[in-house]
Write a structure and sequence with these properties.
12 helices; mainly alpha
């Protein structure tokens, strides 16, 4: 072949190279183009739906906007962790509902997780009575509608005696048809340093736990964490309280007339909602924990016993850490369901986000805006919960080296 001419193989290679440069022959470029087209389609559909909604609302004399959040609400809310009166705005009313929702969700998730772990372990007990009782509880709770359970517990609490005949299971605790009265601490601004010291103690405990874990990996020696944890979590707030002149003033419920004074009150609505959601979610958590424990091979138990470990230490140090890799993904869905199930609070009159939003819709007629607000809030809470659980799941996942 003459110099300067191209061989057949080189010509074929050039044609192949040219064909790859065409966008629809390159997988990455083609994927980006299709995703861009899909994004444009979604934006067009969303904009069209928005324009259609605005036109239909205008035809019926309705306006769209969130300016109403700055107007006075004009209704009271029976339970609030922040100051609120009927003269406050709709925006503050929704904030009260949001705080009430988060309050139930955080406390309930913690309690249901603790109870679910114990029930899941008890379900595997060799004691047939204990295993049978836990199994019966799980089957009844899981196969009964949650709304029915909430109404049941609310009816039970309302059937309690009046405050004058209140039940006192422990000193300072009183159960009546007004809810549960418990001892508490009288709040004042001098308590803020104590609160921040408590938070600092928790952070320091986490740092100490990581340091102990590194020491264990390097030396094989196990250092108990609980003395350090108690010293940090309880000692730091105690030092802060002493420095502030001990502003911790307990307040004990005392019967005065027809009701109690002092202490903290768990209203019938809050108590019934928290109790119902906790018991309901704990049943599902127990089954998840049981499945996770059963996923760990029996050889792990045998290896632990061969080292002279008790069943309790085998469960805590060997089995549960491995079971977490199976437990965490379905447990994430359980936590998400707990937060969304708080919306059923409106059935028993607890002023959560949905309950306050319904009142707002009835007074303002801004149904679309109210629904968009609490739907966005629930979506944000779910995404934050998922992000945290995914982060924790990545930490406990097995890593191949």
């Amino acid at each position: 072949m003459e110099v300067g001419t191209m061989s057949v193989s080189e010509a074929n290679q050039e044609r192949i190279t040219q064909s790859k440069t065409v966008w629809y022959n390159d997988a990455q470029t083609r994927g980006l183009v299709f995703q861009a087209m899909l994004l444009v389609l979604v934006v067009v559909i969303g904009f069209t739906a928005y324009q259609n909604m605005i036109a239909n609302m205008a035809a019926r004399g309705l306006l769209f906007g969130f300016d109403y959040l700055g107007r006075g609400a004009g209704f009271e809310i029976g339970e609030s962790l922040i100051p609120y009166t009927a003269t406050d705005t709709y925006g503050r009313a929704l904030l009260v509902g949001l705080i009430n929702t988060i309050r139930v969700a955080i406390i309930g998730i913690v309690l249901s997780t603790i109870l679910g772990v114990f029930l899941g372990i008890a379900r595997l007990s060799k004691n047939p009575l204990l295993s049978g009782l836990v199994g019966g509880y799980i089957e009844v709770i899981r196969n009964t509608p949650l709304v029915l359970q909430l109404v049941f517990w609310y009816s039970i609490i309302n059937a309690f005696p009046r405050p004058r005949e209140a039940i006192s299971p422990f000193p300072g605790f009183f159960l009546s048809n007004r809810g549960l009265k418990i001892p508490w601490i009288e709040w004042n601004d001098a308590l803020w340093p104590v609160v921040w010291a408590f938070v600092a103690g928790i952070v320091a405990t986490i740092i100490a736990a990581r340091a102990y874990k590194r020491k264990q990996d390097e030396t094989g020696k196990i250092t108990p964490l609980w003395p350090t944890a108690l010293g940090l979590i309880l000692g730091l707030p105690a030092l802060a309280a002493i420095a502030m002149g001990w502003p911790i003033v307990p307040t004990i419920p005392v019967l005065a007339g027809f009701n109690f004074e002092g202490g903290a009150t768990l209203t019938p609505e809050f108590f019934a909602l928290l109790l119902g959601l906790t018991l309901y979610t704990a049943a599902f958590t127990a089954e998840i924990v049981r499945a996770g424990i059963l996923s760990v091979s029996k050889g792990q138990w045998e290896a632990g016993r061969s080292l002279g470990l008790t069943d309790g230490r085998i469960m805590r140090l060997i089995v549960l850490p491995q079971a977490l890799r199976v437990i965490i993904p379905p447990l994430t869905s359980t936590f998400l369901n707990f937060t969304k199930n708080t919306s059923l609070a409106t059935v028993i009159g607890y002023p959560d986000l949905v309950h306050v939003s319904n009142t707002t819709m009835n007074q303002t007629g801004r149904a679309v805006e109210a629904i968009l607000i609490f739907a966005s809030i629930y979506l944000t809470l779910s995404l934050l919960t998922s992000a945290f659980m995914n982060w924790y799941n990545a930490r406990v996942a097995l890593r191949e080296r």
